[in-house]
Design brief:
single chain; 401 residues; 11 helices; elongated; alpha/beta; nine-stranded mixed β-sheet; 60s Ribosomal Protein L30, Chain: A; 2 domains; six-stranded mixed β-sheet; hypothetical protein tt1634
């Protein structure tokens, strides 16, 4: 590994070299955090914070971590054995406990780079890989399609894995009840046309709910997640950005919930919105969204996105790409002016944000503009401060449907 990148890069095997590749397994052990975002109109904030709740949460989580000694549900060794049993290119990967580990052999450097780029975009620091390049290792057709399977697995699996070679794609894992796995199946078929096998279990669990509200340098977190380990991960990542004394972590455990990889990277995405004076970062019903005010400030009767606003929003397109979804932008105004004028103004403000996101490389086809006018205030319009908070944009990131 070089430059701090968690994706290892083994030496290339020269053409004609028939010696076995020496694999070095890199196991990533991280307590991951859950990414999210959903703009909620009303949440009760508590003003008291102290170091004691954080210390107690850390102690509880340490005990939970020590008690969690169960083996992974899916064995990377088994998938490696299945994928490598035929000559040619092969890839095996496991997504489990908020870590993603991938091994394999491909026949071009371009294929290796494409796979690692997809890992970096989808899993970031939570991914490790060990991919060798052997010019004699069969086709380079399916390795170029593998990034699509990596992204689709992240979007749908609770935990899972796959084994791919020149003869088949095998997918295994668990997904929540009601999930449409047709996309995953279709993506697997596109990767490996000869044969696709699947062993996918449907589990009857509810999506998690996490809501973080940042006001005046304080962060309040509410909701429920599957286990104490995840609570501690979210609390620790938040404390690194705010300081433990400024974080009120009210998350609770609900063992009837699940957590998918697409919703982690909590600290990284919390940091995206940190420059805003006030914001809400949350997930509910698997919709990621944010509501920002006090940073992107639209003056009365103005829809111009300032340079400062562009700077503050610059990290959001990457968030959308990591989520592999679409995005709706909702524009809001204060109540000055007529309802019709405010509706038009809110549309122009949302469009201004969309135009900026397109400039930053997002596909305009995945961006929706929804004007709300003055119909959904989050503060009183009787004060200048309340009016400023109501002049805002709301960003809702939706899973691909």
């Amino acid at each position: 590994m070089s430059g701090g990148n968690s994706i290892s890069r083994p030496a290339t095997t020269e053409p004609g070299n028939k010696s076995a590749t020496q694999w070095k397994r890199i196991v990533l052990a991280l307590g991951a955090a859950m990414l999210l975002v959903v703009g909620l109109n009303v949440w009760k904030l508590t003003s008291s914070t102290s170091d004691e709740p954080q210390v107690a949460a850390d102690q509880d989580a340490t005990a939970a971590d020590q008690a969690d000694t169960s083996a992974p549900k899916i064995s990377l060794d088994d998938l490696v054995a299945r994928a490598s049993e035929v000559d040619g290119s092969w890839i095996a990967a496991v997504q489990d406990d908020f870590a993603f580990t991938l091994e394999g052999v491909v026949n071009t450097e371009a294929a290796r780079q494409g796979i690692e780029a997809s890992l970096a975009e989808t899993y970031g620091e939570f991914a490790t890989s060990d991919i060798a390049v052997d010019a004699n290792a069969g086709t380079d057709l399916w390795p170029s399609r593998l990034p699509a399977l990596i992204q689709e697995g992240a979007a749908q699996f609770i935990d899972g894995g796959f084994a791919v070679n020149d003869q088949e794609t095998y997918i295994v894992g668990t997904v929540p009840k009601g999930e449409n796995i047709d996309r995953l199946r279709e993506t697997a078929i596109e990767v490996s046309l000869p044969k696709v096998e699947e062993d996918v279990e449907i589990v009857d669990l509810l999506p998690p709910r996490v809501v973080a509200i940042s006001r005046n340098g304080k962060l309040v977190i509410d909701g429920n997640v599957p286990d104490q380990k995840l609570i501690n991960s979210i609390g620790s990542a938040s404390a690194e950005l705010y300081g433990g004394q400024n974080v009120d972590n009210n998350l609770s455990v609900n063992t009837n919930t699940f957590a998918r990889f697409a919703f982690i990277r909590w600290g990284e995405n919390l940091e995206t919105f940190l420059p805003f004076k006030d914001f809400t970062l949350a997930v509910e019903n698997e919709q990621l969204s944010s509501e920002v005010s006090g940073g992107v400030v639209f003056e009365t009767n103005s829809s111009v996105l300032s340079e400062e606003g562009k700077r503050l929003l610059a990290g959001v397109p990457d968030l959308v790409r990591r989520a592999n979804g679409s995005v709706d932008i909702l524009g809001h105004t204060d109540n000055r002016g007529s309802p019709i004028q405010n509706l038009d103004l809110s549309r122009e403000r949302a469009q201004a944000v969309k135009d900026f996101f397109v400039e930053e490389g997002l596909d305009p086809e995945i961006i929706g503009v929804i004007p709300k006018g003055d119909r959904v205030p989050i503060a009183s319009n009787d004060t200048p401060e309340g009016q400023e908070r109501n002049r805002r944009v709301q960003i809702v990131i939706l899973p691909r449907g």
